[in-house]
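Researcher: Here's a chain I'd like modeled. Treat it as a single chain, no partners, no ligands.
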Amino acid sequence: MTKQSSFKRAVRERARATGQRYTQARADLEVANRQEFVHSRPFEQVALTAHLEEHYGIGIHSILPIDDDPATRPRDSWPGHYPSTLVVKHVDGQQWIARIFSSSADRVSRVQGDAEILQFLAAHDFPAERIAHDDPVTVLDGKGIIVTEFLDGGRPSADSPAVWHELADLLGRLHTLPAAGGAVARDGGAEETDGGFHVGRPKEDLAAAMGFLVSVEDDVNAAAREKFEWLRDQVETADDAEGLPEALTHGNYHPWAAVGAPGNLAIVGWAGSGRGPRLPALAWLLRTAAETKSTENIAAVMHGYSEHVQLTDDELDRLPSILNLRPLWLECLIFRMTVNDGGTPAMDEGWMQPASHEFAERVAAQAIAALRN
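Model: Modeled as a single isolated chain. Structure tokens:
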């Protein structure tokens, strides 16, 4: 079968499963195939469906990445964004989420740890996704799969300071949960979206960022060389948050990690969770809050978080540098994507640029001022 005929078959299957017209399904699949991590965790859908049906004794109507189907696609997401997070629709109407960890770097023990952390959160009544079965982790061809309950409500709008306050309140609650052994004590807090090659504490984001740059170093043209060298220097001198107070923390904490209606949000996406410095999660929430209605949203975050946690002087002093930790990871990823697409990254664009340091100082100053009001 030719590559073209295989693509057409995939489009037809997608259209049939989602109810889309053929032309829209084709456009979405073309977008999905261009995404950075769409092939980082490959799996064979027929085999996966058969595996889940046999293991759990269920009938599956359809199984698709969550952003393939417009009916389940999270707000502001796009096809191919979450290729390994699948919606499993049962023939009886029930829905699960299945996350597939199938890259060469993924460890089944890590997936089993994800389930253990979700069970810990449930035992402490923390609003998070819940495992969908008493045996939530299975193994297919040596790769781990975890199933959780599908949560209704979708991703909340981040337009309201009340949402930012609720997210910060939940983060404060998370950071005050009691210490425990097992997976709850494992290293955590890194982004963990690159196929499992960089998991653990936030400093792993810096290792991943350097990897993004190194992978395209030979392809960087003269016009992009200044930004390449500047980003490389930023990664080499970045604050990794080590030595700061620690807690059980989330690896990508901002509104895209929440599902549900405001006032009743639950947090999802716990693959990067574990024990690590608590400040990076708060800093990423602050950094994203500052994108719109910055003064109100920053105040809402600080007021919500401080209901549970009082930041130390060291955390306040290092907040400006930690505010740029995740943006630096993102910018190095975008740099690689741009170079691979034949583009030329510019110094004055993106999540991380020279002006980002002054921006972080302003955000930190607003955050500290909010604590005093």
